[in-house]
Structure formats: C-alpha cells, structure tokens
C-alpha cells in the first residue's frame, strides 16, 4: 500500500494527516502555525510531524509516495511557490523545494479550497464522480472545481476563485475590491450584513429576540428566526438562497457538474438549505429540461477535506 | 503531412474545409444545409463534398486522419450524438457513426462555439497559448474555453455555456428562460434593445438620425452615434462595455486565461471596443495586482474559426 501526507495550513493551526491511497486516515493531528517565527520554523515543524506520524503508524518512509500542502491565498502550483497567503503573511515562499529536501518525497501545493474540492471528490461526497464543484460558505465563499476528473485551477493556479464570479453587476462591495461577487452575497459575512439590515428595517422582527438569545447576530440567526415564524427572517433566508442558486447556476453553465457540494458554516443548515437551494437552482439552470441535472449535496469530510485533498495531489 | 476535414453546420449553410496539421487551408467552401430534406441528405452531401475536396487537392484519403463537425445546440461529444440543434431541427441524431461509415476516418463532434474557441486557440488569436477563452458577441453570446491546453466542455459536453453565466441576478429575461444571463446584456440583441430603450427616453438623441441613415437600429447604431458626440449613445455603449467586462471578469475568476478573444458582429468595433473593455476588466478583475493579467484581443479567424476548430478535434 502507498501512503501520502496531507498538510492543511490555516491561520492558527496546521492540520496534518497520513492517509493511504484509499483515503483511510492512518493518523491525523494539528500543530500551531507558529507563524510569528517565520516559514522555516513552520516547515521544519510540519516535516517533523509528518515523519513522526509515519513512525507512529508503523509505516516506513519508502512507502510514503508524496506530500501535499494546501494554504489559503494565491499559490503557484506549477512553480511550487506561495505567492501570497494573507493569514500567515507569506510572500513568495518556495515551500516545495524546502519540504522535498526535508522529507525526501515529492511535494505539491495548492490552495485550500482546491484541496478541499479534491478531497471531497476523491474520498467524500463526490467519490466516484468525475464532475463536481465544492463551494464553501464561510467567512468568505471559496471553492474548487473537478471537471472530467481533473482539478481546474486556471492559469498559474490563479483561477477557480469561485467566490469572485460576479453575480450582481455593480452590486455589493466585495472584500476583494470589486463589486457584486458571489462572496459578497453568499458568505456568512454577507448573510450577517443582510440580517442586520433587515433588522434595521423591521424593528419588530423576531430576529432581535433570536440575536439576544445568541448574544450576537451570526449566520444562523435568520435561519432560526425563520423557523420560529418570522416573516422578515424568511425574506432574508429566501434572498440568500436565491443568490446562492444564481452563483451555482453560473458555475453549472460552465461545468455542468454532476454534483455541487456545499461546505462551510452555513452548510450546517443541512437539508433545509440543500433542498431549497436545489429547487431554486432547478428553476433557473440553463437548459434544465434537456441538459443533465445538477445535484446539490452537503460536503461530507468537514475539516478533513483540506488535508485529504492535499494528500491526493500526489495520487 | 496529415490532413483533416472540418465541417461547420450553420442554419443556412454548411462550411467545409480541408486543412493540414499546421492549419493551412487546402480547400474550403460551403454547401446548402438542405435541412428540409433531413439529416441523411445533409450528411451524404457533407461526405461527398469532403471526399471531393481531398481529390481536388490531390490528397489521398489515407492521408486524411479525421473529420470534425461542429453544430449549434446541445451536442453529446462523448456519444457522438446531436441532442438538440434548433436551427436545423435535429433531435438525437447520431452523426458520428453515419459519417465514419461514409468517410472511413474518425469523426468527432462538438458545438460551434467550442469549435471556434479551439480553432482560435490552435490557429488564430491564441495560437501557442494554453489558456484562452473565446467569446462571440452576436445574436446571442456564445463561447468556448481552453484551460491548460484542453477544451473545457463540461459533463456530457453540456457546459461551456459562456452566454448563460448570470451576471445580474434576477435581471433582464434571457432567451434561455432564465434571467440576468451574460447573453441578456451583451448580445447584439441586448444592445439593440438597450439602444431602443435609450431612444425612447431621449427623443432628441442623435441615435434617431443614425438609425434613420441605417434604415434600422442595429448593434452599430450606438457606437456610431457615440462617435458623433451623442451623450445618450455614449451611455449605452459604456453600459454595454461595463457588462461585458463583468462577464469576462467572472470567466477570468474561474480560468485566469492569458487571452480572451472577442468575436461576432459586435467585435467588428475593433480597438474601440477591445481597449475600453480591457480597461474596464482591469478595474474589476479579481486580484488584479497580484494574479497574472488577462489580455482582451479580437478573434482573428472570422468565419473560418468553426471549421478549423472542428478539424482540430482530431489532431
């Protein structure tokens, strides 16, 4: 059996796993990024953890065939260079050469959303499916695309920026500096903004009571108040789902995937979100009656998708 | 030298060419579709024309390595079946088996926009470039995508529907039945609609005089009146270009192509359109300062792009 390391570098923690070629997790864990001590410190720790997890799993390094690393930001996969990763404040760091030297196995890198998409496609909700898209609805909107079995990353890995397709020309300002992006309507951040706006406009809304109980407004507030019968919350949720369907419809026009997987905090709404999004997507998707249907499902690997997909980069 | 047939089935004519592997056109011409006489009649005529053009070019059929056919509509390239082609009124016609039998060479099919994209990528404005997108601005908006050297067609070839990404959620109704599509803002049809609307709102606009001279309102009317100093026309053109940039920006977020080629009637505006679209795109594209730039150019093969790209399907 062949084994693979997968490394998912986040803002605070680095998740590291050792999996076999079937996706069985032999060992997983996490270490602090220690980002304030610089890239070499972090990479040394990653390499040490990898080697240790092989030893603890009784796997000799000759059976480990590669290491994949994913990070947020702009990653040049071909050159093996992290062009820019905001959370850990890296600029133009060549981590592939460094880690290959430490580990003695081939190292590949990609961004975190691409890795999660690959993880879900190989081992998760799209296992066995050649055309899938993963969309994460969290602080931002990210995602990754598998078309005809291949990860689509765009030129110099600078594409697959699913959250930055424009779904409302000249619309809400986006964190990226542009306007009207998918992310500006369908991130948790956008949902919180819209929930607060609706509260401003409807002072009697149940949203106030729900927010009081929660101690704050978050991505769940509108969903909870809607379930409790609040009409204002219902409007917020319906608008959110309609925009979500618009974004998924655009992606479907390009890739016509068999499956779109939703991940991230908002996807915890489960079937309430999934089924309503599917219905809305079906009502607007191109050539809905002729072309193959697109199924909306919930991603299944949770926080493991990143390191598992990173590991799959070398498979 | 190897040679290839390329066939571009339009609503009225079928363009047929014989090219070598470098893209040199040995012979080209067109025949009537004769669509009222059914598929077999048309396919027999196509096969006869192909064989004749090889003979007339002094090329033996053993040097012809394939035939590619492109058509408008929904084409299942894998199965070789035309699922639906509105112009010629075909439903579920397996043309690959039929033509292979007639010609004795491998036959592949794709839709017309994908073929044009491939033609431009192999022999035209994106020659030698691995990541390009072709967008045609005509009666509708169509296009094709080459990512990492490969034509992206989506699952069952039902993707790459560039004109049906949604750029304005819940916006203008589109011919596809959905709303807010790229096509509903950037086709010549949409530009004519918007020109007429602007005329309604500004009865003193120079647009009336230009339309009088032309005898009608078309995709050029606003561009002409703008050049003659009309403020209303300028607004129409600027709005058109802004929407065009929005659509191209979305496509760039997914594929980050090196080049986007504009074709179709509106692209005849040339640099006036190209340079202004480039400037607008640069102002809104994701990570414009960090990620690789995307160049907007005019497509170069004109009406030959389709059959040349079809021919390239077998290269």
Rg of Cα set of chain A: 20 Å
User: Structural class, judged by helices and strands of chain A?
Assistant: alpha/beta
Please state the average pLDDT score of chain A.
96
**Main sheet: strands, sense, barrel of chain A:** 5 strands, mixed
Question: In terms of topology, how is this protein built?
Answer:
The structure is a homodimer of 315-residue chains.
Chain A: E1 3-9, E2 13-20, E3 25-32, H1 39-56, E4 64-71, E5 74-76, E6 81-85, E7 90-94, H2 95-103, E8 107-111, H3 112-123, E9 132-137, E10 141-147, E11 150-152, H4 183-186, H5 188-201, H6 207-214, H7 221-227, H8 231-255, E12 259-263, H9 271-284, E13 295-298, H10 305-312
Parallel strand pairs in A: 1-4, 4-8, 9-12, 12-13
Antiparallel strand pairs in A: 1-2, 2-3, 5-6, 6-7, 9-10, 10-11
Helix pairs in contact in A: 1-2, 3-10, 5-8, 6-7, 7-8, 8-9
Features:
homodimer; 315 residues; alpha/beta; five-stranded mixed β-sheet; 10 helices; 23% strand
Write a structural description.
The relative contact order of chain A is 0.15. The two termini of chain A are 12 Å apart. The radius of gyration of chain A is 20 Å and the shape is globular. By secondary structure, chain A is of the alpha/beta class. The first copy, chain A, has ten helices and 13 strands.
Summarize the entry for a quick read.
The structure is a homodimer of 315-residue chains. Chain A contains ten helices and 13 strands. Chain A is an alpha/beta fold and 315 residues long.
């Amino acid at each position: 059996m062949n084994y693979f390391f997968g490394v998912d570098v986040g803002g605070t923690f680095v998740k590291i796993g050792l999996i076999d070629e079937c996706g069985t997790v032999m060992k997983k864990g996490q270490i602090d990024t220690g980002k304030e001590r610089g890239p070499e410190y972090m990479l040394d720790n990653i390499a040490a953890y990898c080697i240790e997890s092989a030893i603890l799993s009784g796997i000799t390094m000759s059976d480990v065939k590669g290491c994949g690393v994913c990070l947020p930001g702009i990653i040049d996969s071909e050159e093996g260079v992290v062009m820019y990763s905001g959370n850990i404040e890296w600029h133009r760091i060549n981590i592939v050469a460094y880690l290959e030297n430490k580990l003695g196995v081939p190292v590949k890198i990609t961004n975190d959303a691409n890795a999660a998409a690959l993880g879900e496609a190989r081992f998760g909700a799209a296992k066995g499916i050649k055309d899938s898209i993963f969309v994460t609805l969290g602080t931002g909107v990210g995602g990754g695309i598998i078309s005809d079995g291949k990860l689509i990353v765009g030129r110099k890995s600078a594409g697959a920026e699913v959250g930055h397709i424009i779904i409302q020309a000249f619309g809400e300002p986006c964190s990226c500096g542009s306007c009207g992006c998918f992310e500006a309507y369908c991130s948790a951040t956008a949902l919180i903004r819209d929930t607060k706006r609706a509260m401003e406009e409807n002072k009697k809304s149940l949203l106030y009571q729900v927010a009081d109980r929660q101690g704050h407004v978050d991505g769940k507030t509108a969903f909870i108040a809607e379930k409790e019968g609040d009409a204002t919350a219902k409007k917020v949720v319906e608008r959110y789902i309609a925009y979500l369907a618009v974004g998924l419809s655009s992606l479907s026009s390009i890739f016509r995937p068999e499956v779109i997987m939703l991940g991230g905090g908002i996807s915890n709404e489960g079937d309430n979100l999934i089924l309503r999004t599917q219905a809305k997507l079906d009502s607007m998707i191109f050539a809905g009656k002729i072309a193959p249907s697109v199924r909306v499902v919930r991603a299944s690997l949770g926080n493991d998708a990143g390191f598992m997909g990173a590991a799959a980069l070398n498979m």
